[in-house]
Design goal:
Length: 59
């Protein structure tokens, strides 16, 4: 599978608990923090859930 870079671009303040938990599960939590992960169906689902809070790029 390909690697993707996920960067948090918006805050989780005033967001539902499940979105906050998803951000933490992805390894983010602060604005402009970036993680590089393998793209798989589980990660894709998490990214889709918080797509309005993150930016995704091919690595």
């Amino acid at each position: 599978m390909a690697k993707i870079k996920i960067t948090q671009v918006k805050s989780t303040i005033k967001r539902p608990k499940d979105q906050k938990a998803t951000i933490i599960a992805l390894g983010l939590g602060k604005i402009n923090r970036t993680v590089e992960v393998e793209n798989n169906p589980a990660i894709a689902g998490m990214v889709r859930k918080v797509s309005h809070l993150v930016k995704v790029e091919e690595a």
